[in-house]
Amino acid sequence: MRVLAIDTALEACSAAVLDTEQGVLAAESIPMVRGHAEALMSLIAKVMGEAKLPFAELDRVAVTTGPGSFTGLRVGISAARGIALASGKAAFGLTTLAAFAAPYIASDDTVGLAVAIDARHAHVYLQVFGPGGRTLVAPRIASIRDAVRIAASSKTRIVGNAARAVAAAWPANEPPPVLVEEQKVPDIAWVARLGAVATGSPDTVKPLYLRAPDAQPQAAARLPRR
Length: 226
Fold this sequence. Notes:
Elements (H helix, E strand, L loop, with lengths): L1 E6 L4 E8 L3 E9 L4 H16 L8 E5 L5 H18 L2 E5 L1 H12 L4 E9 L2 E7 L5 E9 H8 L4 E4 L3 H6 L10 E3 L6 H10 L29
Parallel strand pairs: 1-4, 4-5, 6-9, 9-10
Antiparallel strand pairs: 1-2, 2-3, 6-7, 7-8
């Protein structure tokens, strides 16, 4: 199976091409906070060129659906939908939380794992996995204090771009996390691997926001309709 993977959810613009028989054919991740829309299509063209693979020979497109930046998510999802439509292939979405978790669960699925992504204002997007990669706490937004309370209930590892913030608030009377690793973005190769095994209904890719946007319309200045 040949998969094009896209990730623009957080502070990078990333793309990769995976052949499940040959491995990762091409991958690149460019750190950036803004500018995903301007960078993404040329990056996709670059990795497809390096992989020497025409779009028609893809089997599916995989894209991170959040949580993450509102603007970044829309850029990646729109690109995935467009490429899937133009090439006649399926598009699959997977969460940023699952993408962070995948390599750790693959290396050891006997120890719990908490994924924490910065949601700003002393909050994180959180998901907790148990043995075998089973979801114990579904994706949610939580205060750092609540995230610690949830994650500290069992032996666990903490990963994600807010891992250190959660670990710093860890209660002194609880056993410390067995691992704390902070990364700004998921490994795009693992986004591709998750995309290759994704099941369910394709072509229903939509953002996972978990919170309302910080910027809201000014209702007070809205003119009444006639």
